[in-house]
Write a structure and sequence with these properties.
189 residues, alpha/beta, five-stranded parallel β-sheet, two-stranded antiparallel sheet, 8 helices, 7 strands, 19% strand, globular
């Protein structure tokens, strides 16, 4: 029987901020559910920018040699990916967007019609923290924009969502409210 694995990705420069707290809580819940965790911090990885050569669409692997090979390996070994990224200008931070760019051929195969997913059968959880208070973070598209962009990558890759959790109003506090932590817990039930 194949071990149950989770790839937990921190896409925030703050290892003790709200986004990291959400990810750590999700990791604890995954461990309780019997998963082995591989955790990476994108801000500690060496990832060059995508050069747009598109060779990965044929091979499934980026031709640039850096930490992307490790991430691709962990992605293939895992059944679930948890991505925690803060909201920056209604989007994800640059290292997260760069990760998506670099994983183009890992996530999909280009065909004459529609992209063919390469990660079908896997699942994902999305976590984001936003300085804007609720409900304005959602109404004005701040956290919604970040979630939409993360969701688009995983859906295109053929993966299924287990949950999308937003923690708003983190500008005034770094504490994650109990109601947000309970939502994270429900993803693992």
């Amino acid at each position: 029987m194949r071990p149950k694995r989770v790839l937990a990705i921190l896409g925030s420069p703050h290892i003790d901020g709200a986004t990291a707290t959400m990810l750590n809580h999700s990791i604890c819940e995954a461990e309780k559910a019997g998963y082995t965790i591989a955790k990476i911090n994108l801000y500690e990885k060496q990832l060059a920018f995508c050069v747009g050569c598109r060779r990965c669409l044929t091979s499934g692997m980026c031709v640039q040699k850096d930490d992307i090979q490790e991430i691709i390996s962990l992605l293939h070994e895992s059944q679930i990916v948890v991505l925690a990224a803060p909201t920056y200008w209604a989007n994800v931070p640059a290292p997260v967007k760069n990760l998506f760019d670099r994983l183009l051929g890992t996530a999909m195969e280009e065909t004459a019609a529609f992209p063919k997913p390469r990660l079908s059968g896997k699942k994902y959880v999305l976590l984001t923290a936003c300085n804007t208070p609720a409900p304005f973070s959602w109404i004005f598209g701040q956290s919604r924009g970040a979630i939409r962009n993360m969701d688009e990558f995983f859906k295109t890759a053929g993966m299924k969502s287990m949950g999308k959790i937003v923690c708003a109003n983190t500008g005034k506090t770094k504490n994650v409210p109990e109601r947000v932590l309970r939502k994270i817990e429900r993803c693992w039930k």
